[in-house]
Amino acid sequence: MKVVPEFVDVIVSRVAHLFFLNAWHITVRSEDDPPRPSGHEDCDGLTAMNTDYFEARMYFDSGLEPTAEGFEVVIHEVLHLVFAPMRDAVHHIASFITLEEDRERLVAQYERVEEQLVTILARGLVQNVDIAAWLKDDTA
Ligand SMILES: [Zn+2]
Fold first, then answer.
1. Domain containing residue 92: CATH number
2. How far is the CA of 118 from the centre of ligand 1 (A)?
3. Structural domain that includes position 20
4. Number of domains the chain contains
5. 49-56 long-range contacts, Cβ below 8 Å, gap at least 24?
6. Ligand 1 geometric centre to CA of 73 (Å)
């Protein structure tokens, strides 16, 4: 494990604040070879969460740079927490489906949609919010 770059910590706390995620206990890790989502091995971030206790652990590639691309990766992971109640609800609904194949299709489709929504929201923020200003003034 490496020292987490300051820009990562600042963005995580600013986005968590922006979306009222302050109840979450978020642990951030920076690693040379972080765990990556299966099927998305080029992805530089991953979030594991326990929604019962509002605990999240975020893993970022240690090579992440404070660029628009790097900002998007960090914001993307925090935004996954916004969707935690929806994710829980879909998994609950899926538990009522008898056929395993149908359960898996429902969950896979939900995950695809969550990924799309998190991606467009993160891009929208990066393109329309002065993230660099957050890094200059991290008092808020
Ligand atoms: Zn994602």
1. 3.30.2010
2. 7
3. 6-136
4. 1
5. 49/80, 49/81, 49/84, 51/84, 51/85, 51/87, 51/88, 53/25, 54/23, 54/24, 54/25, 55/24, 55/25, 55/26, 55/27, 56/24, 56/25, 56/26, 56/27, 56/81
6. 9
